[in-house]
Design a protein that fits this description.
191 residues; alpha+beta; globular
Length: 191
Amino acid sequence: MSGRSERGRSVRGRAVLKRAVRGPAAGAPSPTERPVAGAPATAVVWERLHLEGFGRHRDLRVAFPEGLGVWVAPNEAGKSTALLGLVAVLWGLPHVQDRDGFTWARFRPWGGGAQRGEVTLRVDGRRFTVRRAFDAHAVRVVAHEPEGDRVVLEAAHNPNARKEVTAYGPWLQATLGLTDADLVLATFVVA
């Protein structure tokens, strides 16, 4: 499956986010839904990204290749916006009217309409898809298992909240080792 931008150009790339595995967080998912505590650092492999109404992207679908990939497109084609969309799907977008920050105001749909995103990733041999509706902060995590797909959790995850009250934050911590979007944005490495 190849990724195509709105203009039909090929959109390919590979991103790996290293994480250190920590012990269980309070309210974390069961051991079958997170890596084993004390395991060596592993890599998260991004498989697919789908953005609807995210800035300039009305309907962007990217399939990241297994090996090293190159993302080639003209300046201002939306390459950086797509990568920030991946981060936004996982960590959310604060509903703040700051067009210069990592906020909803900066990435709201240029053409209006719904604003949603979906990321499929693989960590420790397990596959997950995270779906987010940005307007309602609604998140759904699906585990892709040999027996079929299973909903791990459905929750509201508001990045503006002072305290995490759902199972999503602990799932992020247990699965990726990170729950702070600012830290991710400051250290995110595409390799």
